[in-house]
Amino acid sequence: MEHPSTLISSRSKTSPKQLLVALAGNPNCGKTSLFNALTKLKQKVGNYPGVTVEKKIGRMMGSTPDRSVDILDLPGTYSLAVRSPDEQVARDVLLGQMPDTPRPDVVVCVVDAGNLERNLYLVSQIKDLGLPIIVVLNMMDAVKREGKVIDLVRLSQRLDAPIVPTVAMKEIGIEELKKEILQGTRRVSTQRLQLPENLQHPIERLVQVLKEEHGLNPSLAYSEALIILSKEDLKNEPLVIHSPAVKEVIMDIRQSLDQQEINWRSAAIEARYAGIQNILKDVVQQNSPRRISWSERIDRILMDKFFGWVFFWGIMGMMFFMIFSVATIPMNWIDGSFARLSDGLKTFLPPSELRDLLTDGVIAGVGGVVIFLPQILILFFFIGLLQDTGYMARAAFIMDRVMSKAGLHGKSFIPLLSSFACAIPGIMATRAIENPKDRLVTILVAPWMSCSARLPVYTILIATILPAASAWQKAGIMLFLYLLGILGAFAAAVILKRTILKGSTPFFIMEMPPYRWPSLRSVILQMWERSCLFLKKAGTIIFSLSILLWVLMSYPKSPSADISAQLNHSFAGRAGHLLEPLIKPLGFDWRIGIGLIGSFAAREVFVSTMNIVFNIGNADNHTEPLRAAFAQATWPDGSPLFTPLTCMSLLVFYIYAMQCLSTVAVVRRETNGWKWPVFQLVYMTGFAYLASLSVYQFGKLLNF
Ligand code: GDP
Ligand code: MG
Question: Are residue 175 and residue 114 in the same domain, yes or no?
Answer without folding.
Answer: yes
